[in-house]
Design goal:
Structural class: mainly alpha
Helix content: over 70%
Distance between the termini: 46 Å
Number of helices: 6
Number of strands: 0
Shape: globular
Strand content: under 5%
Largest sheet: none
Length: 174
């Protein structure tokens, strides 16, 4: 495993800690908003989906391909369930963010064929969410997916380039 696959040192830990805080706050806020608007126990479904996909996003460094595939499957099933059963629309904002992290990270580090497959899966899950029509959730999920589909390849290009060596100062001989 090389340093492109897993952020090394305190930087990687801080990134995951920051993501964890954002995910936790997003899940809590979404649950609060669902409790106040939908009532009953509808918030449990959305919270469970967001917790699973967010956890996969935080564990992405261990098995990049399988965490991304699992995140895509969980989100796709959640979107279909929200179409069939009367539950809040998926993906929720936190689920959409976690899925974007999984897809973007996969594009950046996986071999080309796997990266393309994960990117296509992310686009397909986002397109599936549009079956609800144009809503704030689908728009946010689309913006996050477009962001990761742009950022992932850009970071891949930067990560694949060899680091430029700084020229050594020539030593003067006496």
């Amino acid at each position: 495993m090389n340093s492109v696959e897993r952020p090394a040192g305190p930087g990687g830990i801080l990134v995951n800690a920051g993501l964890g805080v954002v995910f936790a706050l997003g899940i809590a806020f979404t649950a609060y908003m669902l409790i106040s608007s939908w009532g009953k126990a509808y918030w449990i479904y959305t919270t469970a989906v967001a917790v699973v996909v967010s956890t996969l996003a935080l564990l992405r460094a261990r098995q990049k391909l399988w965490t991304a595939v699992a995140g895509l499957v969980v989100t796709a099933v959640a979107v279909v369930m929200s179409l069939v059963v009367e539950v809040p629309q998926e993906p929720s904002p936190t689920t959409a963010l976690a899925l974007a992290v999984l897809v973007g990270s996969s594009i950046r580090t996986l071999p080309a064929q796997a990266a393309i497959a994960i990117a296509a899966g992310g686009a397909a899950v986002t397109a599936l969410a549009w079956v609800f029509g144009p809503t704030a959730m689908t728009t946010l999920a689309t913006l996050l997916m477009v962001g990761c589909l742009v950022t992932g390849p850009v970071l891949r290009v930067f990560a694949s380039g060899a680091p430029a060596e700084s020229p050594q100062p020539s030593r003067l001989r006496r």
